[in-house]
């Protein structure tokens, strides 16, 4: 996808790389994929159905509401959204890495004043669109923070600033843990009254974000205390609530080790009992792209190594080893709102192909480590009223889906039962975890049986280096189809020419403000179209299909017959 990289680099004001001069693409790579439609190899949990963002107020804005509709369609009622800043003090105006709801203030005598108006509007917006909260309890309201006198409450961070500018008064422990617990109790009680016990029981409740990183200005023991008091408040209002955490930065190191000890055998700060209720565990994992030799080079190995470290920790304490695990942020790099040449991959098909290749390996690692993996949360949503294709890590630009969103739409068509499938060009798990994809491309596959009896085969063509490369000439052989081979298959594509509004925008001349007809054309370009694919039928339930898959392409092939 050289053109998408060039456009992104150009918008960043960087010189065009030497790869632009490439005039010849090598011949197609022959690839054979074999699928045994009558041999299941366990289940494929729909872990992709989790999303999140720093800015909670975007959810109620025009493009935020539109995108939530699309997320809800992926798996209505079973998609979850996590947002920072839900308890922050402020007027509800969104900005980069900030949001507020003003749920908690105090009267002059220190009496708590609760106002659920803004946070209700956010949760109402989720639920009306088939999305449920992965409810992050944070950050600290201004009237409650123990920040030193003179500390600003709202940060002044903006794209280009160092992360240190994010830390301000919201990042400190409460002056009163009893008031903190009571706030959480009252909020949970309100949610049960407003949405019903059965609804709120389906949510996830976790406390804070990355308290071992840039989001917490106190020793780790203070976070454990904060966590205990919040969980006690939730469970006092709803004893059956699903509570967990700690959503650490990375696998968590000593912070996570201490957390696991504390919640299993430590003295609970809030109750004085041993341990803290823990229904799920959560940590974060990120990749590390760089800009080398005039192009973006992804860091999928860094991402997968952190996933594996997190899985090892999650299963290290026997009492918690079978608990569900959610990777509460799982992304190609660490900051959705941060610009830079190393992030010039986000608008086009590098992001979408990376997503397919990385999720496939996360499923593999979970199986290897025997992890009860329940969710892999993509920290990507949208940035309201920003320039078109501005290069942020998001799922849509100005309400128009990016190619990465279409990969989640392909995931949503996979079935619950995994079938035996091999590709002779798929990079082995150990190699991609150790080294990434720096040699031959990773042309891999996952096959499933869908709920309605079809065979669904996902195929991706990924490389860490965002440079021109040959397409893959794929021969897909499916055996064991009950009832014989179908006469025709269907293919859905995400590549430079299909399901790609960014490439369509560039063909328009990259208009700064597309007019209504151009907007409609961009929406059409973003929409995947089912295409017929000829099938060569063999004997005894065998079928073969052939197709080309461009570098950084992702495709889903659907065949009738079990």
TrEMBL record:
Gene3D superfamilies: Glycosidases, Glycosyl hydrolase domain, family 39. Residues 32-530 form the Glycosyl hydrolases family 39 N-terminal catalytic domain. The keyword Hydrolase applies. The keyword Electron transport does not apply. It comes from the Bacteria. Keywords: Glycosidase, Hydrolase, Signal. Residues 1-22 form the signal peptide. Belongs to the glycosyl hydrolase 39 family. This is Beta-xylosidase. It comes from Sphingomonas cynarae. The lineage of its organism: Bacteria, Pseudomonadati, Pseudomonadota, Alphaproteobacteria, Sphingomonadales.
């Amino acid at each position: 996808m050289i053109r998408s990289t060039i456009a992104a680099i150009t918008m960043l004001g960087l010189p065009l790389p030497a790869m632009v001069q490439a005039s010849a693409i090598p011949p197609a790579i022959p690839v054979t994929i074999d699928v045994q439609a009558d041999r299941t190899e366990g289940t494929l949990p729909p872990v992709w159905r989790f999303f999140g963002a720093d800015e909670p107020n975007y959810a109620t804005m025009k493009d935020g509401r539109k995108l939530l509709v699309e997320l809800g369609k992926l798996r209505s009622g079973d998609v979850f959204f996590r947002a920072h800043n839900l308890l922050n003090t402020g007027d509800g105006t969104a900005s980069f890495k900030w949001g507020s709801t003003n749920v908690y203030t105090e009267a002059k005598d220190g009496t708590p004043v609760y106002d659920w108006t803004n946070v209700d509007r956010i949760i109402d917006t989720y639920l009306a669109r088939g999305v449920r909260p992965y409810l992050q309890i944070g950050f600290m309201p201004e009237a409650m923070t123990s920040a030193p006198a003179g500390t600003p409450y709202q940060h002044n961070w903006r794209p280009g600033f160092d992360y240190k500018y994010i830390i301000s008064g919201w990042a400190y422990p409460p002056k009163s843990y009893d008031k903190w617990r009571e706030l959480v109790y009252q909020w949970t009680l309100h949610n049960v009254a407003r949405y019903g016990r059965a609804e709120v029981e389906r949510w996830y409740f976790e406390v804070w974000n990355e308290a071992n990183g840039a989001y917490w200005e106190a020793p780790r023991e203070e976070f454990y205390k904060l966590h205990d008091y919040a969980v006690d408040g939730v469970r006092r209002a709803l004893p059956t609530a699903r509570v967990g955490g700690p959503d650490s930065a990375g696998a968590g190191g000593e912070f996570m080790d201490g957390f696991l000890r504390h919640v299993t055998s430590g003295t609970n700060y809030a109750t004085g009992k041993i341990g803290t209720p823990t229904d799920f565990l959560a940590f974060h994992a990120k990749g590390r792209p760089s800009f080398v030799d005039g192009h973006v080079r992804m860091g999928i190995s860094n991402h997968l190594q952190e996933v594996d470290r997190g899985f090892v920790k999650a299963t290290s304490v026997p009492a918690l080893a079978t608990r569900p695990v959610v990777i509460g942020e799982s992304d190609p790099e660490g900051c959705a709102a941060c610009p830079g040449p190393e992030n010039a991959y986000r608008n086009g098909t590098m992001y979408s192909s990376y997503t397919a290749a990385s999720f496939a390996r996360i499923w593999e690692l979970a199986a290897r480590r025997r992890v009860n993996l329940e969710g892999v949360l993509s920290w990507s949503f949208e940035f309201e009223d920003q320039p078109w294709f501005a290069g942020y890590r998001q799922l849509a630009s100005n309400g128009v889906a990016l190619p990465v969103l279409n990969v989640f739409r392909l995931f949503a068509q996979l079935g619950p039962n995994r079938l035996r499938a091999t590709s002779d060009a798929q990079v082995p798990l150990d190699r991609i975890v150790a080294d990434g994809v720096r040699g031959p491309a990773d042309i891999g596959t996952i096959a499933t049986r869908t709920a309605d009896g079809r065979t669904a085969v996902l195929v991706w063509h990924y490389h860490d280096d965002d440079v021109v490369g040959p397409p893959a000439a794929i021969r897909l052989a499916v055996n064991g189809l009950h009832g014989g081979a179908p006469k025709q298959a269907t293919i859905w594509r995400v590549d430079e020419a299909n399901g790609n509004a960014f490439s369509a925008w560039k063909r328009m001349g990259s208009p700064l403000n597309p007019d209504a007809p151009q907007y409609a054309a961009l929406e059409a370009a973003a929409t995947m179209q089912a295409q017929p694919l000829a099938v060569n039928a063999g004997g005894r339930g065998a079928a073969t299909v052939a197709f080309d898959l461009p570098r950084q392409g992702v495709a889903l092939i659907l065949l009738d017959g079990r």
